[in-house]
Amino acid sequence: MVVRLAVIGGSGLYDLRDLKGAKSRAIETPFGAPSSPVRVGRIGEVEVAFLARHGVGHVIPPHRVNHRANLWALRELGVRQVVGTSSVGSLKRDLRPGMLAVPHDFLSLWDLPTFHDDKVVHVTPTLDEPMRAAIASTAKAHGARVRSRAVYAQTRGPRLETKAEIRLLRDYADVVGMTMASEATLAAEIGVAYASLCTVDNFAHGIADRPLAYADIVSAQKSTASRVGRLIGPLVAALSTKSGRI
Ligand code: HPA
Known about the structure:
By secondary structure, the chain is α/β, with parallel strands linked by helices. It has helices spanning 67-76, 129-141, 163-170, 180-189, 214-241; strands at 5-9, 20-25, 38-43, 46-52, 81-90, 100-107, 146-154, 175-177, 193-203. Strands 5-8-7-6-9 form a 5-stranded mixed barrel.
């Protein structure tokens, strides 16, 4: 079975309610095992693979996610398009928790994973534009408040950022998270189209007057992730037609 589309679920999204007849595939890669077995099933007419980025039960912290194994395993299945969902903090006061953001670009100055340790290869990383547009319009059509373009800044984690770090980032980016840029970079290296749907789960440290607590982020993730889970079905349908690749 060839699977063209995959979803990597971020914090709070550990399975897909619309994935029918799903079977787990344990895939070994030259980079080790992916974060979780890959669930392969069907959404409508489309074969879809699902991978929980932080493992089932959220056991893998962001700086220990084996992004190389995750992307490699999906490509092994034949995947050409990956949608990653990610929890983020907002760097802008008008981008409020509860909203969604669909990045068109990212910055990641410190975390640069690669498949090319032994070869001189320099890719130009990008997020897939037709996928971004399809994600943004589908989310809007389903009633979400969406920032259709956003710059994602990646920090390494696991700690949250200092206020000074956020002051530095806020002029150059809209949201901050710990994983998406690494995934997008590796996808570019293996020729897989990648786009991201971010749930804004908090204001980044110092953006709001109220102190930032990880417990608040986790409780927001629970409700935003289930809303994103409901969007995946329509999103798969839109991606398989509008972005025209599967
Ligand atoms: N910073 C980094 N990663 C995050 C945040 C944040 O404020 N919120 C959710 N993921």
